[in-house]
Design a protein that fits this description.
single chain, 9-stranded mixed beta sheet, 6-stranded parallel beta sheet, 18 strands, 14% strand, globular
Length: 692
């Protein structure tokens, strides 16, 4: 199948060059904020968050009076990222040193009774040593016991670093979140939180607004990260469909020549058809003949029909063999010079099969293809899985994410459920398109404005002028626009359903009514002007790529030549979706005419659905559209008022009101709104007359 989303990058490599202290740009940006007591780092996988923490922690330990640093990770496999690291050879003033006994994630040190883990943390707190690495669970148990004896004050002047921070939530039943609030309320500890998937729209907020306001927030975008890569040039996101069981589609969607991570379906999901070990075996047999295990690593060996032997790491089987497999995956192949031997390290394993593992923090730089079976309702999980493939490595030009899902059935109920699941999946692709965009900063462009209509500043932000754009009227609105747009985009993407993508949904309903509702539900007591300014910025972010893509497609259809002399690569010439977005904006958008009315005239949800629809075969698309037609949405006063200007325009242009029997879905919807407004007007007139 063709990609729903395909993005290419400049691949300058310049943004990854380290400074005199050995820091990459993101790490240097974080280090500038090292004096802040509470730091929140939002950066994609492979951006170097663990080393950024090391730089900040060492400064706090040496120069800010902090006595200890406790690094908390969600699972033991991630603890390896925080092992002792040479930093002085690259120009920093100290090395990151973790005594082996205090890295509780290495060598099975976290196995065993809870009491032993807690005792290790207590011993560390009483020692002169300064750095400990443990899991979230260990920290929770240890905090409870230590705080019961000594109070929260026991952690005063400690740095608590929480990796994969999205595991914390503001929910009352989230123990780590409750502990964090106690630490913040006391105000004597330091906190550094790190995440690659900070999307509060997933369910419960990660932080309460009053808590988040305490943090110094640093954001490093996916675009900045991938645009600075030396090797990886493009990322594709696609969906594929199967009938019966997913095993039947494995030979079609799994290319054994690509280094791949397969995530099999969640247990209990519709896609899971057998016990997990049996499904792994079926995948192996679909590829070829299983001929045994590699003695040293525990990897399964599968002979392909071509005769080539694949090495497969099974992380699904949670028996005693898994520790050996995990250790083999973590073992980097080194050359005589002590540096990674790229050829040997890449050849170490070909395929990893996982269930709940190999997502966040899992570092296999050679992964080219993330194949996920079954729908994932969590946008955070989707972003994490895609992040497994978006690491830069020699010889790796393209990364691919494929979601293999069940094709909708023929029964009405099944089709309806499948359509809803599919829209959730498409919303994930729509979110990734937004996440992969540059950092935009919009401003109101007036007539005669001499500023460049599109300009990239030194921090990589793309400044774009928009006619009629409402500037944020207050500091609060400006803070939301500057800091919260990724979260609002995530919430918006999750609103993709029949009410936002069906043929009878007017663009204004999506850009005005739906986006306004999202903002009002996210923030209490915003004024109408504050809400409208944030809404316009959100609509611009969600629709800019669609506007550029439309104009790019129009140019390709008309066969116009590139007047700007741009010499993009072959991928860019063949597919408008693959164009670098900044280049698209500069090349295809006539920004002198880019205004808020144009932005509001495009439904971002429908655009995402249309892009996805190009990858669907006609019968399947017809089933989806039929199911959406069957899910009628009752007209509301709010929607009728939003549609009223369009009804007046239609009546003026056509010389008649919209026809309720029109074959055009949108015209019929306008007729419903027109009838609704007339009925309400008549009701109010009767009430007024009755009361006179």
């Amino acid at each position: 199948m063709s990609d729903f989303i395909r993005v290419t990058y400049g691949q300058t490599g310049k943004t990854q060059a380290p400074n005199a202290m050995g820091m990459r740009p993101m790490q240097a940006r974080v280090y500038e904020a090292r004096a802040a007591q509470f730091i929140l780092l939002k950066a994609p996988p492979a951006a170097g968050k663990s080393r950024a923490l090391m730089f900040v922690a060492l400064d706090k330990l040496e120069n800010q009076g902090v006595g200890k640093a406790i690094v908390c990770v969600p699972e033991t496999s991630i603890g390896a990222s925080f092992r002792s690291t040479d930093l002085t050879s690259y120009g920093f003033f100290a090395d990151w040193e973790v005594q082996p006994r205090w890295n509780l994630c290495l060598n099975g040190a976290e196995d065993g009774a809870t009491a032993r883990k807690v005792r290790a943390v207590k011993e560390f707190m009483a020692s002169e040593d300064r750095v400990l690495v443990c899991t979230h669970a260990t920290f929770r148990f240890a905090f409870d016991e230590i705080a019961e004896d000594e109070g929260t004050a026991a952690f005063d002047n400690c740095l608590i670093a929480i990796d994969e921070f999205h595991h914390v939530s503001a929910g009352d039943d989230n123990r780590l979140g409750e502990i964090l609030r106690r630490i913040l309320n006391r105000g004597y500890a330091h906190v550094m939180a790190m995440t690659g998937s900070y999307f509060r729209g997933d369910s419960i907020p990660v932080l309460r607004p009053e808590d988040e306001a305490l943090f110094r927030s640093i954001t490093y975008s996916y675009y900045e990260q991938l645009d600075g890569y030396r090797f990886l040039k493009s990322l594709g996101i696609s969906y594929s469909f199967y009938r019966d069981t997913y095993i039947s589609a494995i030979p079609e969607v799994l290319n054994p020549d690509l280094k791949t991570i397969i995530h099999i379906p969640h247990r209990g999901s519709a896609e899971a058809y057998d016990v997990k070990q049996a499904e792994v075996g079926a995948i192996l047999h679909a590829l070829g003949e299983v001929i045994g295990k590699e003695a040293e690593t525990g990897f399964d060996l599968v002979r392909l029909p071509t005769g080539r032997v694949l090495k497969v790491a099974d992380l699904v089987d949670d028996g005693p063999e898994r520790d050996r497999v995990k250790a083999s995956l973590n073992r980097e192949m080194l050359g005589p010079d002590g540096k990674r031997d790229d050829e040997a390290d890449r050849a170490k394993v070909d395929l990893i099969i996982a269930l709940g593992m190999a997502k966040e923090g899992f570092d296999w730089v050679w992964c080219e293809h993330a194949l996920t079976i079954g729908y994932r309702s969590s946008l955070t999980e989707i972003v994490q899985i895609i992040g497994r493939a978006t690491r830069d490595a020699p010889g790796k030009r393209h990364a691919q994410f494929t979601n293999l899902v069940a094709e909708p059935g023929v029964e009405t109920g099944v089709v309806t459920d499948a359509v809803n699941d599919m829209l959730k999946a498409i919303s994930g692709a729509l979110l990734m398109e937004q996440v992969l965009q540059p950092n935009f900063k919009f401003y109101r462009r007036e007539e005669g404005d001499t500023r460049p209509p599109v300009e990239v500043d030194g921090e990589g932000k793309v400044h774009i002028g928009i006619g009629g754009l409402m500037a944020p009227p207050t500091d609060r609105a400006r803070e939301i626009v500057e800091n919260d747009m990724h979260e609002l985009v995530a919430k918006a993407c999750q609103r993709m359903d029949r009410s936002t993508v069906a043929d009878d949904v007017a663009p204004e309903v999506a850009t005005q009514m739906v986006l306004t509702d999202i903002i009002e539900r996210s923030y209490e007591n915003l004024t109408p002007d504050e809400t409208e300014a944030v809404r316009q910025d959100l609509a611009a972010r969600m629709n800019l790529a669609a506007i550029a893509r439309k104009m790019a497609e129009q140019e390709l259809e008309t066969g116009e030549e590139d007047a700007g002399g741009d010499t993009g690569g072959p991928e860019e010439k063949d597919a408008p979706d693959a164009l670098n977005l900044i280049r698209m904006v500069k090349k295809f958008i006539n920004v002198q005419e880019l205004d808020i009315d144009l932005i509001d005239s495009i439904n971002p949800f429908r655009e995402g659905f249309d892009v996805a629809s190009k990858a669907l075969d006609t019968p399947l698309l017809q089933q989806i559209q039929s199911a959406m037609v069957a899910q009628r949405i009752q007209m509301t006063e709010e929607e009728a008022l939003v549609l009223w200007p369009r009804i007046k325009r239609f009546t003026t242009q056509e010389g008649r009101p919209p026809n309720p029997n029109s074959p055009d879905d949108l015209e019929r919807r306008l007729a419903e709104a027109h009838a609704y407004i007339r009925t309400k007007k008549a009701e109010r007139l009767r009430v007024a007359q009755g009361g006179a």
